[in-house]
Specification:
- The complex is a heterodimer.
- Chain A has one domain: TIM Barrel (Alpha-Beta Barrel).
- In chain A, strands 7-6-5-4-3-2-1-8 form an eight-stranded parallel β-sheet.
- Chain A starts with 9 loop residues before the first helix and ends in a 16-residue tail after the last helix.
- Chain A has helices at 10-17, 22-32, 39-50, 64-75, 96-103, 125-137, 149-153, 157-171, 182-185, 188-199, 221-238, 253-266, 283-297, and strands spanning 53-56, 88-91, 110-114, 142-146, 175-179, 207-209, 243-245, 279-281.
- In chain A, strand 6, helix 11 (221-238) and strand 7 form a beta-alpha-beta unit.
- Chain A is an alpha/beta fold.
- Chain B is globular and about 80 Å long.
- In chain B, helix 3 (98-114) packs antiparallel against helix 5 (131-152), helix 5 (131-152) packs parallel to helix 6 (180-193) and helix 10 packs across helix 11.
- In chain B, a hairpin with a 2-residue loop joins strand 2 (42-44) and strand 3 (47-49).
- In chain B, the strands form five sheets. Chain B has a seven-stranded mixed β-sheet with strand order 14-15-16-13-12-17-18, with helices on both faces.
- The longest helix of chain B is centred in the N-terminal third of the chain and has 22 residues, at 131-152.
- Chain B has helices at residues 6-11, 76-95, 98-114, 116-127, 131-152, 180-193, 208-219, 234-242, 255-265, 290-302, 319-333, 354-369, 401-404, 420-428, 443-452, 485-490, and strands spanning 39-40, 42-44, 47-49, 56-61, 66-72, 165-167, 170-174, 197-201, 227-229, 246-252, 271-275, 281-284, 314-318, 373-376, 391-394, 411-417, 435-439, 457-460, 479-480, 493-495.
- The chains are: A alpha/beta, B alpha/beta.
């Protein structure tokens, strides 16, 4: 069922990818939250989570100075050298150049830029592609695009798919993350269908991502699970491994560990790496560091003991 | 999704997921104190008394094979004493205002909640089931049953509108080892709410939480003799159910023993309810939400190590998705954690006893000998304890023993079907009829199967869901009478 086949009606596509039972998937993910992660497993999980954070600032009031501060935080989340750097910083396109200056050319932290008229995607395709081209030219390693939700819900699946394919082609060497904006897709059936649609267009090293963080509902264990299962099915059928990025709403270390349990028990060890799994978050990073400190010293340090990423600006 | 590219597949191995040790979970043992005494006596007439002949038996922890505690071995004389105590308590107890009886039941429910951790650990140590289940299911459900029936105690006038209900007298109850505390709650709570007095015999493998509950009965200041608990071997249970003072017999256990009991009490004018074995079909249609169906299959047969009378031990899966469902099931079973029941991350604990483990192993051998294909999840057995890793048989036919007999262990038999009619026929082709599961996205199919399946419970797109308000019981050789809800309560009443 590739792009060359007849335009798939929404109905037919749903039949092809199969339904999702809401009660069942929510029951499944509730079990992840009862896993007890202690001692060495906790420390390892927390460090792994730090290394997976896409440290994000996506605000109208962002400035080069704030972005520089964010980059420094991503490079060195805490004084303790045992804490690894974050996976990436995630910014608006206008901030890519200043961020590149701070990170340098050989940075352990990757530089991700949202593009395609984030967060709504409501401009002409040519405009969106131009934005992608510019962000890559300015030095972005990764592009976070939004899908055309209006077209998806209206049943114009071919259009959604072709637009993703066009962005993939425009990205060049940059990795692509396709944001489904699950809050606007509303049902698990839609989330699964949209995931499968996007997966077919992506290259190894690309990601699918839950949300922009700009709508009321963001990443949950359940909608992330639906996407993980789509990634699993795609991998088993084609051998192409796509990454996953839940974004928005993951604020505590405990939540992050539950998300990692879901990865471990759904996709297995090969996805427990920043190359295939990311957290789109900002406040999460300091909570992870705080829990690591607590494991190291046995006591919780005060909040002011940790450097702020960008919240104070 | 791209269609499977068979030409590409032939050149390199099919992609598979890796569930390894990159990020292992550390042991996370539950540490609450189960407060187990070295010795327990019988609970008769509100007091703890040793067995008349002074003998005792040992209960062991099936996960370690080490002794847990010593219990009085009740015999015929003790059963007689317990029945007399219950009979003498009956006139006062049955005439108490319903609200007063409800008060005791509410008290029991709350005491059980207060000491939930302690009871969960004790149950896990006695039975071998994982702490995750005793903590999240057994103990909360037991408390919920006391709460639910406490609410009924003063509303019996509304139980059978236009008619009057009266208690039956002394109820003899014999419960199995798979859900020791929960089955006790299922039995005692409705009996007391309706105004009966009880003599209960817990299973000899798992008597611990029953005698611990006797301590709660004392703490709740339940009038002496209203509930009596006699621990001992199976023969003691037979004495109890045949005792002339017992006017109602409630038994949960195997169909084999149920038949023996029926013969022994025939013609004695006793009321009977029997909740016996099962061989439930879990039917998965091609349009089902497959990931959730796989989860339901796992929950259906591997919950409590498969030692569940309503376990979904026969998977009927539609031909066109059979291969995919089985592959997905195996993948899921590789992350099911088998081991120390007290570890909070354990999904599958120990089998209740050496005998039961050997029975299960016997069925595994029988399945292989009859030509079915056995797959077991990779598993490193602990040095001690009775463990069986999850087992899936494919290529099973209706005539295989593993498809006909109740195994009572973590063993799933997979059969396929082509049409709805075939699914119904295969599902009903069993002497049992306790439960069934249907997985489909199509509502009309669910309604149709709910009427055509001869089973007491039909779960749709879920499995093993229980509620105190929902009656539970069987068709055919799975027994008669219901437990839970209005129907269950009516089985403890004389309706005039």
């Amino acid at each position: 069922m590739r792009a060359s086949s007849a335009p798939p009606a929404l109905r037919r596509w749903f039949a092809a990818v199969g339904p999702v039972d809401r009660v069942g998937v929510e029951e499944r993910v509730a079990k992840f939250t009862t896993r007890s992660i202690k001692k060495a497993a906790k420390v390892q999980g927390l460090k792994l989570a730090v290394s997976m954070v896409d440290l994000t600032t996506l605000e109208g009031k962002d400035t080069p100075g704030k972005v520089a501060s964010l980059c420094r935080k991503a490079l060195r989340p805490h004084d303790d050298p045992a804490v690894p750097p974050a996976a990436a910083v995630c910014l608006y396109p206008a901030m890519v150049r200043p961020a590149r200056r701070t990170l340098g050319l050989r940075s352990p932290v990757r530089l991700a830029s949202v593009a395609t008229a984030f967060p709504s995607g409501q401009t002409a395709l040519a405009t969106r592609l131009a934005e992608v081209r510019r962000a890559v030219a300015d030095g972005a390693d990764e592009i976070d695009m939004v899908i055309n939700r209006g077209a998806f819900l209206a049943g114009e699946l071919t259009r959604v798919r072709d637009e993703i394919a066009a962005v993939v082609a425009t990205c060049g060497p940059a990795a692509l993350k396709v944001i489904l904006e699950v809050g606007e897709l509303e049902t698990y059936d839609h989330i699964r269908a949209a995931s499968c649609l996007a997966l077919g267009e992506l290259r190894p090293g690309d990601f699918i991502k839950t949300s922009t963080g700009k709508t009321a509902s963001n990443a949950t264990l359940a909608n992330t699970q639906v996407m993980l299962e789509a990634i699993r099915d795609h991998y088993l059928e084609t051998g192409v491994a796509i990454g996953m990025k839940p974004a928005g709403g993951i604020r505590t270390a405990k939540q992050a560990l539950h998300f990692l349990v879901a990865v471990k028990e759904t996709l297995g060890d090969a996805w427990l790496t920043p190359a295939r799994y990311r957290f789109g978050a900002s406040a999460l990073l300091n909570d992870l560091v705080r829990q690591l400190e607590k494991e190291r010293t046995g006591a919780y340090p005060a909040p002011y003991a940790f450097s702020e990423a960008a919240e104070s600006y | 999704m791209a269609p499977p590219a068979s030409s590409r597949r032939s050149r390199r191995p099919a992609p598979e997921l890796l569930f390894g040790d990159l990020w292992p979970y550390d042991p996370a043992p539950e540490t609450a104190d189960p407060r187990i005494r070295a010795e327990y006596d019988l609970f008769i007439g509100g007091r703890f008394v040793p067995a008349a002949d002074g003998t005792r038996f040992t209960s062991i922890n099936p996960a370690t094979e080490r002794p847990l505690t010593e219990l009085a071995r009740g015999g015929p004389a003790d059963v007689d004493a317990a029945c007399r105590a219950a009979a003498s308590a009956f006139p006062r107890w049955s005439r108490l205002p319903g609200a007063e009886r409800g008060k005791y039941l509410f008290r029991l429910a709350r005491l059980l909640q207060d000491r939930a951790r302690e009871f969960a650990v004790a149950e896990t140590m006695d039975n071998g089931k994982p702490i995750r289940e005793t903590r999240d299911f057994d103990v909360p459900s037991a408390a919920a049953h006391f709460f639910y029936h406490a609410g009924w105690a003063d509303k019996l006038a509304y139980l059978a509108p236009g008619r009057t209900v009266a208690p039956l007298g002394v109820v003899g109850q014999v419960i199995p080892w798979n859900f020791p505390l929960l089955m006790l709650a299922w039995k005692i709570a409705p009996a007391l709410a309706a105004g009966n007095c009880v003599v209960l015999k817990p299973a000899s493998n798992t008597p611990l939480t029953a005698v611990k509950l006797a301590e709660l009965l004392q703490e709740a200041e339940l009038p002496p003799g209203v509930v009596n608990i006699v621990t001992g071997p199976g023969a003691t249970g037979a004495h109890l159910l045949a005792h002339p003072l017992v006017s109602k017999v409630a038994f949960t256990g195997s169909t084999e023993v149920g038949k023996v009991i029926l013969r022994s009490v025939a013609g004695a004018g006793k009321r009977l309810t029997m909740e016996l074995g099962g061989k439930a079909a879990n039917i998965v249609f091609a349009d089902a939400p497959l990931d959730q169906a796989v989860e339901g299959i796992v929950n259906g047969i591997f919950f409590n190590q498969g030692q569940v009378c309503c376990a979904g031990s026969r998977l009927l899966v539609q031909e066109s998705v059979a291969e995919r469902v089985v592959a997905q099931l195996r993948r899921r079973l590789r992350v099911l954690r088998v081991g120390d029941p007290l570890d909070k991350n354990t999904d599958l604990g120990a089998i209740v006893s050496r005998e039961q483990r050997d029975v299960i192993r016997g069925y595994l051998r029988a399945g292989v000998a009859e030509g079915a294909e056995l797959w077991q999840a990779p598993f490193r057995a602990p040095a001690r304890g009775f463990y069986v890793p999850p087992a899936v048989f494919t290529g099973v036919t209706q005539s295989h023993r593993i498809a006909r007999e109740e195994i009572f262990g973590p063993v799933l038999s997979v059969l396929t079907f082509r049409t709805v009619e075939e699914a119904v026929e295969k599902a009903n082709n069993t002497p049992y009829g306790l439960s069934a599961g249907v997985w489909t996205d199509k509502g009309s199919l669910i309604l149709r199967l709910a009427t055509e399946l001869r089973a007491g419970v039909v779960w749709a797109n879920t499995f093993n869901k229980f509620d105190p308000a929902s009656p539970f019981g069987g068709y055919k050789e799975s027994g008669f009478g219901r437990e839970g809800g209005r129907h269950g309560l009516l089985d403890y009443c004389a309706v005039a």
